[in-house]
Design a protein that fits this description.
mainly alpha, 0% strand, 8 helices, Fatty acyl-CoA reductase C-terminal domain-containing protein, membrane, FAR_C
Amino acid sequence: MTFKNNPLEQAFRRPNVNLRSNPFTNQYWTTVSHTLPALLYDGYLTLMGHKPRMMKTITRLHKAMMVLEYFTSHSWVWNTDNVAMLLSHMSPEDKKVFNFDVRQLHWAEYMENYCMGTKKYVLNEELSGLPAARKHLNKLRNIRYTFNTILVVLIWRIFIARSQMARNIWYFVVSLCFKFLSYFRASSTMR
């Protein structure tokens, strides 16, 4: 969420993290979410006379993801009994000197600072570019929603053309939408 509020400059896609324990679904979504868009973008770059670069980037990303795969695809249970016992035996002065109680940490603020520090010191991006980056991220969101809507309508139209039951469902849903809209139109004029 922090990278959605404070996006990176020149983002290609909206940030999204999904951890899956099933290797087949993981491979499927990796192909659909990473490889296919990278191939399409590289095809676009080639048609425009530019050097393709996304597959190289995606390959590097996948190598980095493979390093973490063992840790992200298994379940982990951590025991903190020793830390709690040590913390309970410390004097108040030692608790101030050796402050390692993570219960006092405000995680949302910590992640915000972590992401902003990564943006500024690792990626060398200026914080003054945040409004433009937010606009760009909103544009990417709108493109994604438009594409998904068009895809759903096209797939649905294919099924409607083949099945009377699908046509009946389609007309029912459309009539409900019109009734819903007309209700709001009528209720908005009552004010």
